[in-house]
Design a protein that fits this description.
Rossmann fold, six-stranded parallel sheet
């Protein structure tokens, strides 16, 4: 529960369920976002559901089993592979319905197959639904496609703390500059090396690239390599490594264009892209995976052709066009596209409907 799209979705689901009168208990190893669970009316239980150490599997599954027997939940949801494997053991013989959330197109394997094992499987996009069907033969009747939601009240240009946003402009030294922004954890899968290379090709000396996000200890070396790449390209003063932030709307308010630079592994949905659009910002992304369902090409951003022979050049051209302005697309139309399609109320209603369906199915067995 440190940062990331899955963690944000869990927080949103907790808030949605509590608002509908459900008791929500979130079990995780803990982290920076864990306090948000209690603040929204849920309850957080800290437990190591993250470690992949096989020697502690039975011990941790036993702890989860005891928690389940104490809480007696109506339904259990697993949002990642290790928790799902622990849940299989913990729920054995208890007749409690469970749902797996397939948040990503993980490498096809027996280990990853566990994310199709729930009584129902929730996918954030048609892309993930089709991936599960093609990779594991998952019955489409067991899959519910529920796009992630955007908190339209929080991601609202009118609600931004202008003073704080102004302090960020000063801190990042981007006042008067065109700002290209990337938001998300710093990992190789995010393709930030491609983004920096593309930014170097922009013929805009007054532009700045701001990377909002941090790397965990396992990816500290990758972040160092990005800094070295920026320096080698003569961009040390033009690429800002802003670190992680709890004030993403204020960060996004400074951007002129937001880029999702995954070029190797497709996004399952693209929550940061949807949030940027809710702030009225055009998004540039590779036209594959779930983000291709989020960004409307030419209307809310630009999709780089998936088969572009030179991704850096293609991203540079798309960013340049987006910075110049999309014909017929203004900030308000971009925002409305996001808040209407990724409405929090719709996500909440569809989620509860899926949970109730899983519970009815279990009762009939």
């Amino acid at each position: 529960m440190e940062q990331g799209g899955v963690e944000s979705v869990v927080c949103d689901l907790n808030r949605a369920l509590v608002a509908r009168g459900w008791e929500s208990v979130v079990v995780s190893r803990g982290g920076r976002l864990a306090p948000l669970i209690g603040a929204a009316g849920g309850r957080h239980v800290e437990m190591d559901l993250k470690s992949k150490n096989p020697f502690t599997y039975f011990l941790r599954a036993g702890r989860l089993r005891r928690l389940v027997e104490t809480e007696r939940p109506d339904i259990v949801c697993a949002h990642s592979r290790v928790p799902a494997w622990l849940a299989v053991r913990a729920l054995c013989g208890l007749s409690i319905p469970w749902i797996t959330y397939a948040h990503g197109a993980n490498s096809v394997s027996r280990y990853s197959r566990i994310m199709t094992a729930g009584d129902l499987v929730i996918a954030p996009s048609r892309f993930i639904s089709e991936f599960l069907q093609a990779s594991y033969g998952t019955d489409p009747s067991r899959i519910r496609v529920i796009p992630n939601a955007v908190d339209a009240a929080r991601f609202n240009p009118a609600a931004v703390d202008a003073s704080f946003a102004g302090s960020l402009r000063t801190k990042w030294n981007v006042a008067g500059c065109k700002v290209v922004m990337a938001v998300g954890r710093i990992t190789p899968v995010k393709g930030l090396d491609t983004l920096i290379g593309a930014f170097a090709r922009l013929a805009l000396p007054d532009a700045r690239l701001v990377i909002v996000g941090s790397a965990d200890s396992s990816h500290a070396g990758y972040e160092r390599s990005l800094r070295e790449l920026a320096a080698s390209l003569g961009l040390s003063g033009r690429v800002v490594f802003a670190g992680g932030s709890d004030r993403i709307p204020e960060c996004l308010s400074i951007a002129d264009v937001v880029v999702s630079s995954n070029v190797r592994k497709p996004e399952s949905f693209g929550l940061s892209a949807a949030e940027a659009m809710a702030m009225g910002k055009p998004v540039v992304a590779k036209g594959f995976g779930g983000v291709a369902e989020v960004v409307v090409h030419g209307k809310t951003g630009l999709l780089v052709p998936p088969d572009a022979p030179d991704p850096e050049c293609a991203f540079a051209e798309a960013m340049s066009s987006a910075l110049a302005g999309l014909p017929g697309a203004d900030a308000e139309s971009i925002r409305q596209s996001a808040v209407s399609r990724f409405d929090f109320g719709i996500m909440s209603e569809n989620t509860v409907s899926a949970y109730e369906t899983a519970m009815r199915k279990k009762e009939k067995r």
